[in-house]
Known about the structure:
The complex is a heterodimer of chains A (268) and B (225).
Chain A: E1 2-6, E2 11-15, H1 22-36, E3 42-47, H2 65-76, E4 80-85, H3 91-117, H4 119-122, E5 133-137, H5 147-155, E6 166-170, H6 171-174, H7 185-233, H8 236-249
Helix pairs in contact in A: 1-2, 2-3, 3-8, 5-7, 7-8
Chain B: E1 2-8, E2 14-15, E3 17-18, H1 21-30, E4 43-46, E5 57-60, E6 67-70, H2 72-82, E7 86-93, E8 96-103, E9 116-119, E10 129-134, E11 148-150, E12 158-160, H3 162-170, E13 176-183, E14 187-188, H4 200-224
Amino acid sequence: MALELDPVTTGISALPDQDATAADGFARALDAVQADGQPVRQAQLLLPMPAAPGAPPAFGGTPDDAAVDGLARSIQHGIDSTVEGVGNVVHDGVEQWRALEYRGQLRANTLSLLGKADPAVKSGLNGPGQSPLEIHHTVPYADPDAQRARDVLAKWGISIHDPADAAILPADYHRGENVHGMASPQYDTWIRGQMDLADQAATGAAEHGGRSAGRAAVLSYLRRTSDTLVQGSGDPRAIALAQTLRALERPLPRPDLSGVYDWRGCGP
Amino acid sequence: MNLYRVDADCAYGVLPIVEEPGLVRFWAETAGKSSAANWRIPTMLVELDDDFVPVDCVCSATTPGRGLLLNRRAREALGKLLSPCGEFLPVRLGSFDYQWFNCTVEIDAVDQEKIEGVPAEPPVPPRYWMEITRWAFKPEALTQPPVIFGLPRHRPVLLCTDVLKSAVERADLLGFEFELLWSSETGGVPVRFGPPPMFGEAARELRERDRRKREAALARLAQAS
């Protein structure tokens, strides 16, 4: 693990070696620096160049949970994290890492909340001997087919990384040939319909209670949609965590991101 | 009389529209309201993928509820029936010319006392529903129903009667999906709420069913051309 510290900018660059994936390295480097008490404000994960154009980035394959954890942890610590390739990282690699950052944001927000109820949860969702759980964006953060649904969130100033958009799912349900692998147009159609309903209900609520009532309405529809996904997984631990999450997040004041949020809904 | 929820069948793929964000907003704001006077023909770029089949009624990722995207064949077959219930607005989607049928008729026919499901929580006012598992309608509001109409507070839902369903079947149009919600004789039928199957055998079956539909549609289109 090659770790470079810059005392002037208090930045950190982590470059993976052959023994560790970039993701592991990033997470461990952050831990090491945090343990030293250094005020890290920027973190950058440097990726090596791919072997050949079109080849997958040579950093250990698909971004894994360790990478998400690393990013989530850095976000929790208030570190402005970036993941950048060195040289000509193939387009897919860049997109993959951008997606990873989005996953990290939602995970950080959700773990922060859950950690208030159970500090053991804060470090991750995967305890020893337990099947891994992951956090899924109910309204997808990048899928073009979900643009209408993102527009509704953006219209009411709700972040795509709000814990209301989090569906805690077993990893084997979330990945591979499941929620993402089996992603069907029917899923996007369902989400779009739910968010259309939410938008209409929010408009009704806003007529009586103002814009904040409208936002609260969309959040309640979004939570219900997320929780329907969790229920569908049939995983008791995921269901219990989702219930804890909902109990914790209700009183939270949320900043209104209207006007700040990009219309395309992919981030402020 | 039967009432069906009518929509585009997204088994034939979703038309991925690459558009200006403002166009999405414009599109959404005109839904359900008479918009022909202000309509500017949107030319939308599309990125076709292998899963999309240009059937008679297509599913789009960005169109709001209460409308159907129809090709010329569907327009010709259904125009007379649909015209009294809305307006046809031309849309150019890549190399395809479609008409967006924007349904402007709305009937407050839902029987709020008998409907089954999960009502929305405050601060949402009454009569909004998060989840409906069995619809109920007031027969007196449906003595002479239009062939297609929307419902207040249920924008994604577009309802039709047997008249439209039969016309679609007679004309052998592809891409429509009808889900029976209610019958004047037997009342509401149970409705499944939730996402499509996304795990295991049920998800595989759904994918396989969609694939078969697309193949059959492609074969028919090839034969027609």
